[in-house]
Amino acid sequence: ELVRDYTVTLVDGLNTFQVVGFSKDRTQSNPVEIAVLLEAPPRNVSLYVFVVGINKYKNPALNLNYAVHDARAIASFFRGRGGLFKNVNVVEIYDEEATKANILTKLKDLEMSNPQDVVVIYLAGHGENVSDIWYFIPHELTYPEREEYVRSQGISSADLAAALKKIRAQKILLLVDACKSGAVLVAFRGFEDRKALSQLSRSTGTHVVAASTKDQFAAEVKELGHGVFTYTLLEGLKGKAAGESGTVTVRKLMGYIEEHLPEITKKYKQEAQFPVVDSRGMDFPLVQVNR
Question: Could you tell me if residue 98 is inside a domain?
Fold first, then answer.
């Protein structure tokens, strides 16, 4: 018998705790859940948005066309959406500012959030897989084809997971629009893409959406003015994912992207691009759409 004690911070309303076990090959057991209801006075909810976009790399051969434009569009959208939130805090870093140290510092700043708050993190740039580990490529990484450079200068799945675990907010959405994003974390094939992504979201309590599987490049379409993933994301946020209620929740948004991203890429005569998503924890509203 194994007994562990944990101290947790409850949020207003129903708090659900889930326990699972894993075999040596990481096969998951059936979950056991308990629920605790906290009836507390209403508290103000803040939205924290952190976006990273890299068009210009230190190595010009890596330069992209739409990453910065896409990231700015996400930041601009949320900056004007304060209806559900008392405060909206948006932090943006682009191109030369998007170093490994700066990105990790800005992620650490999100630790100041409160449990009832909402955090949205958006990363747009290059990604690379090394030895079954996914890395986001910051501005200063000049040779992504060299594994030693990626390991030392890239932002690994472990770096991301460690940062997300320390964020106090219980409602987190991580969006990754990167070439070869490979389920955000690990360069496994087929089901393993999703298995790896599930492990990230499970370990951090985070909802995660990656633009493509490990073998795909994130498509850019001149006619749309965006990468296709971000175009689809924005369409969902602007109301197409709202449904009859007029509220875009994180799970509605994820479902919209899963359904429509392959259709849109095929429409523009490109190979269908399939996002990889995983969802843990509570559903929560992102946008209230005015109809």
Answer: yes
* Bridge partners, residue 124, by sequence: 53, 177
**Neighbour tally for 45: CB within 10 Å:** 19
Q: pLDDT tens digit string along 189-243? A: 333 344 444 555 454 457 888 886 544 455 566 777 788 899 999 999 999 999 8
- Tens of pLDDT along the chain (291 residues) come to 678 888 777 766 677 788 888 888 878 888 888 888 766 555 689 999 999 999 999 999 999 988 999 999 999 999 988 778 999 999 999 999 999 999 999 999 999 999 889 999 999 999 888 887 888 999 999 998 899 999 999 998 888 888 988 999 989 999 999 865 543 544 323 333 444 445 554 544 578 888 865 444 555 667 777 888 999 999 999 999 998 889 999 999 999 999 999 898 888 767 777 888 877 777 889 998 876
Burial code (b: 16+ CB inside 10 Å, e: under 16) for 210-222 equals: bbbbbebbbbbbe
Determine the residue type at 276.
Answer: V
In a domain, 46, yes or no: yes
First-to-last C-alpha distance (Å) of the chain: 55
CA distances from residue 253 to 19, 116, 137, 168, 271 in whole angstroms, order as listed: 27, 20, 26, 23, 22
Query: Number of structural domains, the chain?
Result: 1
In the chain, which residue ranges form alpha helices assigned H by DSSP? 67-79, 100-109, 147-153, 157-165, 191-204, 228-235, 250-267
Please indicate, yes or no, if residue 126 is contained in any of the structural domains: yes
CATH code of the domain containing 186: 3.40.50.1460
CA dist 125 → 71, 97, 219 (Å): 10, 13, 12
The count of other CB atoms within 10 Å of the CB of residue 56 is 16
Residue-range definition of the domain harbouring residue 193: 13-274
Answer yes or no: is 4 within a domain.
no
Strand 118-130 and strand 46-53: the pairing is parallel
